[in-house]
Amino acid sequence: MNVAAPISGRVTNLTRSLLGALLLLFGAQACAEAQATSNLAEQRAKAVTQVVLGILSYARWPVEPVQLRLCLIGPTEYADDLVKGTTQATGRPVQVRRLLADDPRIASECDAIYIGKLSQDERSRLFTALSGHPVLSMSEADDPCTVGSLFCLRVSDRQVAFDVNLDSVARSGVRIHPSVLQLSRRRAAQP
């Protein structure tokens, strides 16, 4: 019985050491995967910011705002970089804030809105409230771009592209330079 005790103790210590090494290995692998996912999400957010700023630079309002007011509506997946605030290439600052979809200030205090995930009912009420107000709208969440939004982002691992709803553009009161419409067609043609 005395002989078995030291062997059992050595096996237990060896088992613990192996388990500890495996946990460290899997932990390091999980951290590396989390870091890669975080980097990819950060890259997507930066790419979305560039596309959003590009779209905004091609827009003209009936009365040009000195400071562009961009409102984020609903939960967003790619707007983290936008939230930090930014400046357009022209030097015009972009003030970014989050508002709820039913906030009555959207139509009067937002020059542009970036829409995340909303229910159909919320989207309908939002676009009803925006009717007659010059507000540029962009959607990020699986939007077929058939109702409401002027621009619908399509985010993938390789690029951020967008669709344009010409009917919504015509009704928005915001003028969009034709170059952005051509850019949309060109990106749609890319694989």
UniProtKB/TrEMBL annotation:
UniProt KW keywords: Signal
InterPro entries in UniProt: YfiR/HmsC-like
Cleaved signal peptide residues: 1-32
Entry-linked Pfam families: DUF4154 (PF13689)
Protein name in UniProt: YfiR family protein
Source organism per UniProt: Pseudomonas wadenswilerensis
